[in-house]
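re the bet — no i am not wrong, look at it urself. input seq straight from the record:
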Amino acid sequence: MPAAGWRTLFLLLLLLLPVCCCGEEECVLGLVGRPVSLPCFLPQLLTSVNLSIVWRRGEEVVLWSVWREDGEVEEWSVSRFSTPEDASLSGNFSLQLHSVAASENNTHFSLVETSGGNSSSELCSVCLQTAASFSTPLLQREESKHGGGEAVFSCESSGGFPAPTLSWLINNKEDPPPGAVTTITTPLPDTQLFNISSRLTVNLSKGGGVTCIVENPKLNETLSSSSYSVTRSAVQIRASEAMWIFSTALCVVVGVMVLMGVAYQIHLDRIHKRKKHDFQKLQSRGYKRRSPDKEEEEEEAMKPEEEEEEEKEKKKEAMKPEKESEV
């Protein structure tokens, strides 16, 4: 097919597109807190001069745009709303929401072309549906006030939209008995999201379990949490008690051995100190015994020197009369 034929076919498809997209109102699912685009493709408006369009939310105008012949674009909008910058060139006049709110669920949006202050019929009509995922269910087992084999379970999930359905399963197949479940759904005023909580009171057999299921059909979302009850047998209880007794006895034995080791070490230290003290005493006594002997030896060594001194003195005395006689 020649290139001109392809272009003609393409233009025909573009002209039929608004009929397909906008002839009947379609719904778009937007996630709360996330951006979303409400589709509207109008290639027939590409030839318009001084084009002016208005997007409405119900009867409220949320966006107004004018594309002048000189290329200048004027746009006014409520916060969170805009259109593509190249809308007049591409024919894509989709309304873009920067953040979806839960309160906008089942809201009707429409686009109309205005000329001289007059509005034409709707060129696009889109329905916005909103949804938000719930948190994974928090399943906990609580102590029963009535005792016996009765068990109480609580399940909580939060932050979703719209209100979910919550159900319980016992042993993955049985529904709870009548009157065993109490469920409360709480809307949050600021965000219009929902929290849900439920309590199940049931008698569980040995090894039995329960499952809490939270469903959000709008998102085709199913979340679940399970808890299992394990009843210990008499053999397990006796084994546990025996293990506890053994561990206690082992701790006592280890403690006694540590005390004995510390006491023995203290005894060895005392013996060592006593021996050291006795050795020091022996050393001091030996020094005292050796000291008198040394004094006697020194006296005997000095005796000859004293005798020599005395002889020298005597000789000097003997020589004095001779000198006097000579004189």
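see?? The helical segments are 3-22, 87-90, 234-326. told u. also Confidence is low (pLDDT under 50) at residues 1-23. so pay up
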